[in-house]
Amino acid sequence: MTVPFMISGIILLLIILSCVLAPLVAPYGESEQDLSDSLAKPSKEHILGADKMGRDLFSRMLFGGRITLISAIAVVLISVIIGVPLGLFSGYYGGKLDSITGRFCDVLLSFPSLLLAFLFVAALGRGMTNAVLALGIVYVPMITRLVRSLTIVEKNKTYVEAAESIGFSRPYIIFRHILPNCFGTLTVQLTLDIAYAILDLAALSFIGLGVNPPTADWGAMLQEGRNFLLMSPLLALAPGAAIVVTVIALNIFSDCITQYIDPQGRPLPSFEKMEKYRAALTRSLRAQLKQLSGAKKIETGILSIEDLSCDFVTIDGIVYALNGINLKLKRGEIHGLVGESGCGKSVTSRAILGLVDKKHARLRGDIRFHTTNLLELSENEMRDVRGKRISMIFQDPLNSLSPLETVGSQIEEAMANHMDLSKTELRGRTAELLEKVGLHSDIAKRYPFELSGGMQQRVMIAQAISCNPELLIADEPTTALDLTIQAQVMSLLRSLQKELSLTILLVTHNFALVTENCDNASVMYAGKIVETAPTKDIIKSPFHPYTKALINCIPHSGAEQNHEQRGKLQVIPGFPPRLYEPVKACPFVPRCHMANSKCDEMPHASNLGNGRLVCCRMAGSV
How many domains does the chain have? Predict the structure, then answer.
């Protein structure tokens, strides 16, 4: 729990308990008076003093608080009882009901809420009951509007359509499926409404439209005390402070409970302290090893990943996403990183660029770009690397491009961040880049939603190569594109790789794409690279059972298959493991037809020569 949540919760709990238990806690009765103690100063007998009638101020604060809180809750309940059904039915059914409800809300919301409450109370007569009823009606449009908006969003979701297809009645769907999904936002709003109701009720009592004397509430006490500010300031300050503290505590509490109602917003424990300790220990050990061995920095190619592990903190526990990744990229190659969804490919690519949330993730190992360990760079230093020396193409171009800016301005923005070019030079280079990726320069004036999926991906490629990076990470660059456009995009990447001497890391789950475009390939499974080899060798003779299973899943034409296989698409039985525990044995064992007792321990990568590394005790027997 966060500190504001705990503090506001404790304050509210104390206020509620003391007011509810007022008959037991208060030293005097609500209207018990002693004229000899009129306007008495704070003392042992009267903790906060006494009012002009000699009534104990502290006792009246407790009794008045009880009336104020109960009345505020009653206001919100009235608005919920009327507003929630109106919002649910108008949002779900629409039509005339929605129009009539909308006009009703518009009329009431066109007046200031407090002024409208004054009019209702004046018509109904003074008294706390009428004040509560008036405010309850005034709050109805706000609740109705909120619930209607939430209902419109929820009714278009697939789960509602599925419920309708099963045969559930519409009222059942509304109250059983839609309403529970509105509880989160609604709870926050109702907590805030209680705070607003306290203020409005206090205002009505202050002008004499609330409780009738001698009954106390905080607003009436504030009105009585203002006449004695010089002689006894606590008479006004005490109820005023009670109102302020309660309202502020409710506001903070409502803000904090959002995190606990919505699982995605819950605060997670931080690895920050652990990371600082680990970093200090790692630096110390490396310094000692360097002194002992006299080690020298060695050029390890353009990118070298050694023993990279990454753990994420989630609501369900720690996910061990990467488990000792080892990967080397040579300058000028296209290297494929292939595996099923969830095996850690995208985490690896984001770790290279430092896009992993370090507060809720723990990274270990080395990511060396030339001789620089990227994991040791500060955020400012990484900004100089991203886009300029290492760039990335994301798998969803439409969501990766801002819908409010033209594609040309977004390409220019990327260059302006790293290159010292004038506005004219930026425009000229943007036009040049668009033509290089097969688009007309006029495309720069268009918005992303005006382009097809293939054109959007070409814009992403132009943006990625705009600052002449050395390494380009292509994360599923052909997702959601048809086969013809896929081929065009990959052909474009290959031509750019040769023209600009790029090194490309192609992240994909499509082994056919790797076969056709990559020089070398690495196969990932359960956060670990299980096999690395030249692509032609890995296709011809896979050494790991998982690699072979992936290759068998590549669709073939009927002419390449025998009669029994024709028309059947190969699949890998079972599912990848859930990585909520550290992997100690070979993770592919439950799905491997060659597994035996030797596989109960995690195998180490074996170097079989010719650039082939295999992490399997049965390597070569596949």
Answer: 1
Buried b (16+ CB within 10 A) or exposed e, 417-432: ebeeeeeeebbebbbe
Is the bond preceding 269 in cis, omega lying within 30 degrees of 0?
Answer: no
The DSSP 8-state label assigned to residue 311 in this structure reads E
DSSP assignments along 249-289, one per residue: HHHHHHHHHHHHHSGGG------HHHHHHHHHHHHHHHHHH
- pLDDT for 166: 54
Kind plus residue range of the DSSP H or E element containing 138:
helix 128-155
Q: Does residue 163 lie in a domain region?
A: yes
Give the DSSP H or E segment for 461: helix 453-464
Is residue 574 predicted with pLDDT exceeding 90?
no
Residue 551 tokens read as 């290759």
Within a domain: residue 168? yes
- Section 384-412 average pLDDT: 83
Report, as an integer, the average pLDDT of 439-466.
89
Residues 502-537: tens digit of each pLDDT: 999 999 988 888 988 999 999 999 999 999 999 999
Query: What is the percentage of the chain residues whose pLDDT exceeds 90?
Result: 24
How far apart are alpha carbons 376 and 380 in whole angstroms?
A: 12
Which structural domain range is residue 197 located in?
3-26+75-265
Contact between 40 and 54 (Cβ < 8 Å): yes
Instruction: Find out whether 62 and 18 touch, Cβ atoms under 8 Å.
Output: yes
- In this prediction, residue 296 has a pLDDT band, given cuts at 50, 70 and 90, of very low
Residue type at 413? E
**Ramachandran sector of residue 578 (left: φ over 0; alpha: ψ -120 to 50; beta: rest):** beta
- Report the CATH number at residue 131: 1.10.3720.10
Q: Write the pLDDT tens digit of every residue in 535-568.
A: 999 999 898 889 888 888 877 655 455 555 555 6
Q: Would you say residue 182 lies in a domain?
A: yes
d(CA 221, CA 64): 8
Nearest to residue 40, comparing CAs of 29, 58, 54?
Answer: 54
